[in-house]
Write a structure and sequence with these properties.
Blueprint: H1 2-12, H2 16-27, H3 34-43, H4 45-51, E1 64-67, E2 72-75, E3 93-96, E4 99-102, E5 123-128, E6 131-136, H5 150-155, E7 166-169, E8 175-177, E9 180-182, E10 189-192
Antiparallel strand pairs: 1-2, 3-4, 5-6, 7-10, 8-9
């Protein structure tokens, strides 16, 4: 009885998250079943392909790709499943942003690109979550501020303003209080028609 009381007090001292983690850890098997994995490996052709060692997709056969990280053949993945490259997705899907998605025809918004010429009219080639994709150029009034660099700039980029527009700082209003002039901390930049 005293042992159970100590165990209850121990669990109550952890937050809800800690308790879930401990419960999960205590329920995990310490080693794989000895005969179960071997029996599964030898039972079906698909299971045999899963255990096949590979260094390229051709070694795996139809319906499988080589997971180059682990060097094992794995089944092709469907829409919404995690992936690292296009060859891990079933036909008609491509690996974008780490998941298998329906392929977008070249030149359309959201399709892969290497340069602006790969995209349709009024579009540019810019990073979105680290992937180079076709995006629409910014129209009048849209925010066009681009940071000098850093992580936000290297992961996501925006296109420049449409032809005939320039990215300009909006007029600021200064606040005067006694002898100090307060500058706003953040200023907005938008695509505007250039003033002549």
């Amino acid at each position: 009885m005293l042992g159970k009381l100590n165990l209850v007090l121990l669990f109550l001292s952890f937050s809800g998250t800690d308790a879930r983690i401990w419960a999960w850890m205590l329920n995990m098997p310490h080693s794989p079943p000895k005969e179960g994995a071997k029996a599964l490996r030898e039972s079906t052709p698909a299971a045999k392909a899963l255990s096949a060692v590979c260094d390229g997709d051709r070694a795996c056969g139809r319906g499988f790709s080589c997971d180059r990280h682990f060097g094992l053949c794995v089944p092709l993945r469907g829409e919404g499943q995690y992936c690292r490259r296009d060859a891990q997705c079933v036909r008609g899907l491509s690996c974008m942003f780490g998941k298998c998605h329906r392929s977008i025809p070249n030149g359309q918004e959201g399709s892969r690109c290497k340069a602006d010429r790969d995209c349709g009219a009024s579009m540019c080639c810019a990073r979105h979550h680290g992937e180079m994709v076709c995006k629409k150029r910014l129209v009048r009034g849209e925010s066009c501020y681009v940071p000098d660099g850093g992580l936000a700039f290297s992961i996501n980029q925006i296109c420049p303003c449409e032809e005939g527009l320039l990215c300009r700082e909006n007029s600021r209003q200064h606040r005067r209080e006694r002898d100090f002039i307060y500058q706003p901390e953040w200023t907005s930049w938008t695509c505007q028609v250039p003033k002549l």
